[in-house]
Amino acid sequence: MPIRNSAKAIIINEGKILLTKNQDEDGYFYLCPGGGQEQGEALKTTVSRECMEEIGEQVTIGDLCFVRDYIGKNHEHSFDFDVHRVEFYFLCSLENKLNFERKPTNPDHHQIGIEWVHFNQINQYRVYPKQLIRHIKKHFNGEKTQVYVGDIN
């Protein structure tokens, strides 16, 4: 199976991060909005398209912040065991105030909504990749972080 690229948005406002809310047989889990890059599509275009599809909002795309490998067989709760994906995380901001009345245009099949999650409470949520949150917190605290974070869970 070929390696696939994915582009994701890190959207933070007032100490909260915007995540997609998803559900599986174990309950709720949360992800940064984003998804698979299409043939001939630039990564920033992927982030823009995926944010419209998953959160129903336009975003301003900033710098590339993190790169992560996702090798499905190495992760708990993996429903895509045979997948190898390289994920590119961009710092983004909403172009307009989030309108919860506006619906995503093409949410993922596990997605049931979107939610602002406060960083002080994020450890109470099942967020993937878990270890990326530590890197995001460091980045926003002005601490040095690595860009390539590896095959983290």
From TrEMBL:
User: Nudix hydrolase domain location, by residue?
Assistant: 2-139
Which cofactors are required for activity?
Mg(2+)
CDD domains annotated for this entry? NUDIX_ADPRase
Q: Which Pfam families match?
A: NUDIX
GO MF annotation, one: hydrolase activity
What does the UniProt keyword field contain?
A: Hydrolase
User: Where does this protein have coiled-coil stretches?
Assistant: none
Question: Which residues belong to the signal peptide in this entry?
Answer: none
What is the name listed in the Swiss-Prot or TrEMBL entry for this protein?
DNA mismatch repair protein MutT
* The organism of origin for this protein: Pullulanibacillus pueri
